[in-house]
Amino acid sequence: MHVQHRARHDAARVTLLTEGTYPHSHGGVSVWCDQLVTGMPDIEFDVIAVTGTGREPLVWDLPGHVRGVLPVPLWGAAPDGRPPRGRSGRQLADAYERFLTALVDPAAEAGFAPALYTLAAQAAAGRLSPFLRDDRAIAVLTAVWNRPGLAVREARPSLHDALTATALLEHALRPLAAPPPRSGVAHAVSGGLAVLPGLVARERHGVPLLLTEHGVYLRERYLGHRTATYRWPVKAVVLGFFRLLAEESYRRAALITPGNRYNRLWEEQGGADPAAIRTVYNGVDPAAFPPAGPEPDTPTLSWAGRVDPIKDLETLIRAFALVRDRLPQARLRLFGGTPRGGETYRERCEALAAALGHGDAVRFEGRVDDIKDAYAAGSVVMLSSISEGFPFTLIEAMSCGRATVSTDVGGVREAVGDTGLVVPPRDPAAMAAAALELLGDPARRGAMGEAARLRVIEQFTLRQTIDTFRAVYRELAAGRTEPPARIVLPSPAVTGAGSLTR
């Protein structure tokens, strides 16, 4: 970890737990993290960042009260070490067997958490990753999912399935080896793999875990695996892991702060105590996003975000084709970068626009120096995502006084209220109809834009968000409890020294 300055012992301390976001990439969650950190110079921050390869550069300027950043690569070189042998190896194999059984056998799910913390101890000792790259781990999985009576057995899992599932779990469990925070508050800014060091910190050191979900991590894993090329036995193992990890995170968090009420429903369904859930909306600085000024001379739909399948730009492009059938002069401008690995998706979107006969009117603008320019570029700002939390681009566009058309996902309806039009996701015809409705009525567009800015000023300011989280940090730090009692396993446990996609 890169220590940047001497610690101030009178300051509260927070460890941010991130995955694929701050401080190594741009995007809405990264913006949110930067806002929290820069808005609280009175609190010291560390960051444990789950990354791709570990070679990603920092893309945010870190203030002096960020003490350090620890990258935890999922896809870099395999950790050093050899799998344990003898009695130690048998005990690890037994724990892994209980872990896998919980993933595929509903009757054994109670064994997930004890097995997970045993694997965490092995990971800290440098044994887990080597074990999972050894033939013995393959044999354990093969034996588990071929047991009579299990649904996964009916799919006739193959050796290739076992190799694939084991490799995915080996990568997914690497964050268990990261040194967990020993004090302060562990704040996971998403569900999933980022939570793993926080769960270990709570288990070993009694560090309170704060969980903020912007989108619903588990739902996004379900959506992503719908089109994944893995066979069903592999999906059963991987999605079983993410589901039980979500449930354990909800149970163990001292407080859950979803970015919208929609997320709360998923969290309660996953076993979270309703009394431990407190909705905290994202906020923007209205002064930083002033009214955008005159609209473009040509009817223009604008969009801002990262070029990613979850943003469903294909539906937006299909909707624009329908708009252009009615308004041949219309334009679609798409602002935002393409993450590494997303080039194929962007090419597919460009090919779709060309195939529909509108390639000349659809422009991928790339990253823009000032995001306000993206909103000012449109007569109407569009959001076509199939999953969102409480999207920054939407409330930023609202603060800029632009009318919006958005898909009804996550906290979108909560954000917009009656100041924009909301349509079903994956419905080009409905999106096109809403866009045409606003493009054809300048007075209504203007009134909606004014109402949208007022709504942001009244309900969604950055100052409200920062003040709320500062109070939450101090509340949790003051109420820190002693480490919880160790879970007693049915057989001896071994202790050790102290976006699963590319």
TrEMBL record:
Gene3D superfamilies: Glycogen Phosphorylase B. Pfam families: DUF3492 (PF11997), Glyco_trans_1_4 (PF13692). Residues 12-274 form the DUF3492 domain. Keywords: Transferase. GO terms for molecular function: glycosyltransferase activity. It comes from the Bacteria. This is D-inositol 3-phosphate glycosyltransferase. It comes from Streptomyces zinciresistens K42.
